[in-house]
Amino acid sequence: MASCLSGCGFTDTTPLQVSFCRPQMTMTRLLPLGSPRVKLTASRGLLLSRPWTMHASLLLAQADPSNLLAARLQMAITLGFHIVFACFGVGIPALVLLAEGMFLRSGDEGWRTLARRWSKVFAVLFAVGAVSGTVLSFELGLLWPEFMGRFGSVIGLPFTLEGFAFFVEAIFVGIYSYGWNRLSPLAHWWSGVPIAVSGLASAWFVVTANAWMNAPQGFRLVDGAVVDVRPLTAMMNSATWAQTTHMIIAAYMVSGFVVASIYAVALLGGRTTLYHRRALTLALLPAAAFAPLQLAAGHWSAQVVSRTQPVKLAAMEGQFQTEKGAPLRIGGIPDEQQRVTRYAIEIPGGLSWLAYGDRQATVRGLDDFSPNDLPPVRVVHVAFQLMVAAGMLLLLVSLSIGWSLWRHRKIPTGRWFLTAVVACGPAAVLALEAGWTVTEVGRQPWIVQGVLRTADAVTDAPGVSWVVAATLTIYGILAIGTLVVLRLLARVPLPEAADGN
Amino acid sequence: MAIELVVLCLVGLGITLYAVLGGADFGAGVWEFNTALQASERERALIYRAIGPVWEANHVWLIFVIVVMFSAFPTAFAALSRALWMPLLLALVGIVFRGASYAFRSHAVAALRQQEIWGAVFALASTATPFFLGAAVGAVASGKLVVTVDGRYAGNYLTGWMTPLAIFNGFFTVGMCAYLAAVFLTREAFLQRDPELTSLWRRRALATGVWMGILALGGLTFVASDAPLLWQGFRERAWHVVAVSLVTGFLSLWALWSEHHHGAALGAAATVATVIWGWAVAQYPLLVPPAISIESAKAGEAVLKLIAWSIAGGMLLLLPALAWLFYLFKNPTESD
């Protein structure tokens, strides 16, 4: 085997005779770079091997340089696709349970019809979410083998727990979807509860792993080797609570606003049956209630970012120079050559106040960090502005509902209001994708903040750009297929009982 | 037992359950593929009804295997991700299309043309996925992947996995899925008191079973010629397991012949399980032969313990739920 490797830059390691369990099977192996043996010898001061980075650079020198961009694009496409379905997986079960719960309380068949129809939609969305999530679990290794090889044991715990949550979800999706006639109405409602709970748990576990990439802890690096791994400490890192809260609220908002948006289209088109009005109300109210909470959760997240990733905060705000009493910029386009953000509306002292609660506080600018450690500022800043702008629309709709409920004890029904609700669906998805862009692009050039560079983690496999092209085609087919099937489901005529008016 | 072995046995359990339960779901699609032109609507209905409530849960065993592998044996996972780049990508395409097309076909109400298209995609993807997953396992078993102890790969990313044993195992896995599906569907048809379909699936199961038996023996010659390390393991340690596999294989065929449908299903599952454990025992203590062993790839003691405990806790939640699912939809007394 040594001979097959000698052409690949490995020859200068000292070959080590290692015997396997069977004595007659003595084999020549490479020096185990990340194994306990090396750590032992290294700590004794016997430098038998070059540091691992040297090997990585030797390998990377041969890798296709376009791999990094292609692999990041591949991750962006597959994650950006999955995240929408994942949000539906968290939020829609709760809506279905609300509808079925109303049926149980009132005995009104209309609510049951609503729950049944939504559960069919959910079954389709869940299947697409499950397979696109499977793609991601493989891709972590396929695209970023160095990342998984070195840190798999650090972040494996939340993924294992998420695996179980997903398992419970899949089991009860089967029971709930096929159990309408096999279980008593109450037992059937309860069989849906684990779907909603485990969807929530899945989201929480997975986002803890992402939070760890932003605020890594729970391990030590000794000569490039990961030692002293404490997965629980890694899972409960300083970004965990803010990021998971922000994401889970986002999932409920996306589900609620997208569903509400679809029924708002129906109402505007003249389909104003009781069924449609109920569906709109049921989806819109919880989503609207979450919008003000999201403002607080987002603020909390930004404060955590200011502590754990000051460079990301500077990119989000387009803050090039370190500044005392930094302004809050609304809009604007960062000019990375001239190191200035133009065309922004500036609120004096706003950023200092939001980040540190003091209008005179100093905010570190991008120029305070090494040029090698800066994310693409324009993408991050613009994405952040888009997220905030979309969030503000959702908040506005939420406040108008609150006002109308307080003054008139009913949800507004005017054309302007319904048009705004139609816009809320796409706006919620936009906010979701833009927010995800902020957290991922804002961490670049690191895959694990300050610890492992994305360029060092990427695979050397050839043809990643072909994979991207194939993925675009396949996910395009998937997206079209989903939309077509959902339209078919929506066309099924409503039973008489649903038309109560 | 050392903690890494406990975790590895749990991975083995996950692979076994995925192969038996998930394999049967794929196998149903393989049959749809093979009988595309002559299958009746009633036959298709039986297939869809059988896998509908359970396929998503069965699919999660694969996720379980993946996440436990990268948590507990990170360097082995990195090596496999590199060396099996092609077959795993191709399997992923299959997984995506299988799952999505099943859901689309089931819910594309009153659109016959679309149902036909998605049905075809489902059949094709159900056949391709086990082929590539089986090939990936075969490539590992052949011991020809040029991996290093630290999880790097020096072979060809596009063709390095195409060993004779890998290609053989791709086909073998498709056949195994078809056999499982035929035996399980015989039982399903019998439970639904449909003598015509019962006898159809029984004949198919018997024919596939005989062919798979012959193929399995042929597979041993592939191992002997293509994977000397594994062959040695078979001769030294795993021959008991192979013997058990032979016995359960014959028993499942005999049960089919004498129309003990539950026994046949059990026998077929046991046969597949023993084939997998035979491979595992023969390959012990290597994870990715020849370079990566359990010892060199394992995570730290504390991590392994935590994983073992979280799996134990997870199973406490999972197993009752899984039992309820199968009780509701695979129970002999239920027949609506």
Description of the molecule:
The complex is a heterodimer of chains A (501) and B (336). Chain A contains 16 helices and twelve strands. By secondary structure, chain A is mainly α. In chain A, strands 1-2 form a two-stranded antiparallel sheet. A two-stranded antiparallel sheet of chain A has the order 3-4. In chain A, strands 5-10 form a two-stranded antiparallel sheet. In chain A, α4 runs antiparallel to α7 (185-214), α5 runs antiparallel to α16 and α9 packs antiparallel against α14 (415-441). The radius of gyration of chain A is 26 Å and the shape is globular. Chain A starts with a helix and ends in a 10-residue tail after the last helix. Residues 1-62 and 496-501 of chain A have low confidence and may be disordered. Chain B is an all-alpha fold and 336 residues long. Helix content of chain B is 81%, strand content 1%. In chain B, strands 1-2 form a two-stranded antiparallel ribbon. In chain B, α3 runs antiparallel to α12 (301-330). The longest helix of chain B has 32 residues, at 3-34.
What are its keywords?
heterodimer, A: 501 residues, mainly alpha, two-stranded antiparallel sheet, 16 helices, 67% helix, B: 336 residues, 12 helices, 81% helix, 1% strand
